[in-house]
Amino acid sequence: MYGIVSFFQMGGFFMFPILLVLAVGIAIAVERWIHLKRVKAENSRIWDEVHPVLVEGDFDKAREMVNEDKSALSQMLAMGLARQGAVRRREDIEIAMEESMMEIVPQLEKRTPYLALLSNIATLFGLLGTIMGLITAFAAVANASPAEKAALLAASISEAMNCTAFGLMTAIPLLLLHARLTTTTGQIVNSLEMVSVKALNTISTFTKRQY
């Protein structure tokens, strides 16, 4: 613990902005991860309940089920089933679901891009801290005696490099978290698209049987 505190203190003023960036990034990552896992679980649950009802052709019951649920998948199916009750064309139902997807996807991606931005900011703060530390170091060396210059310069450069190191130690995990959340979001979007196609095929198949 002492070593960590000493490392932080030696990094200078810019260690504090980097620490703030790290805290904000972790907060965003945790909130997004919890949200996406909840969305994934809710979508899986409602689809397991609605799919058998769609296969049976009981669209009124399916419409009632998705209207009572607040999951992302229910919102998409609700738009399609609402159009199904008014029209028979597959294209109209598909357009309604695509319109709903355009509203859902931005909510899934919300705040995730900030992690990549914060990663870059942490790196830049680290470099800025190092440059400012080196400027201070060379200014101090200029006024030091020849015997002290080497030792003073080495100590100052070591302190300045701590800031760059901390910036990279912050940036790399944030980039990894960004990649993981982006992958999870993509999986959810793909599952929604798959459900959309399955629901459309089921509705079309049952509609053809009626004629």
Automatic annotation (TrEMBL):
<feature type="transmembrane region" description="Helical">
    <location>
        <begin position="114"/>
        <end position="140"/>
    </location>
</feature>
<keyword id="KW-1003">Cell membrane</keyword>
<feature type="transmembrane region" description="Helical">
    <location>
        <begin position="6"/>
        <end position="30"/>
    </location>
</feature>
<protein>
    <submittedName>
        <fullName>Outer membrane transport energization protein ExbB</fullName>
    </submittedName>
</protein>
<keyword id="KW-1133">Transmembrane helix</keyword>
<keyword id="KW-0812">Transmembrane</keyword>
<keyword id="KW-0813">Transport</keyword>
<comment type="similarity">
    <text>Belongs to the exbB/tolQ family.</text>
</comment>
<keyword id="KW-0472">Membrane</keyword>
<dbReference type="InterPro" id="IPR050790">
    <property type="entry name" value="ExbB/TolQ_transport"/>
</dbReference>
<feature type="domain" description="MotA/TolQ/ExbB proton channel">
    <location>
        <begin position="71"/>
        <end position="194"/>
    </location>
</feature>
<keyword id="KW-0653">Protein transport</keyword>
<dbReference type="GO" id="GO:0017038">
    <property type="term" value="P:protein import"/>
</dbReference>
<dbReference type="InterPro" id="IPR002898">
    <property type="entry name" value="MotA_ExbB_proton_chnl"/>
</dbReference>
<dbReference type="GO" id="GO:0005886">
    <property type="term" value="C:plasma membrane"/>
</dbReference>
<dbReference type="Pfam" id="PF01618">
    <property type="entry name" value="MotA_ExbB"/>
</dbReference>
<feature type="transmembrane region" description="Helical">
    <location>
        <begin position="152"/>
        <end position="177"/>
    </location>
</feature>
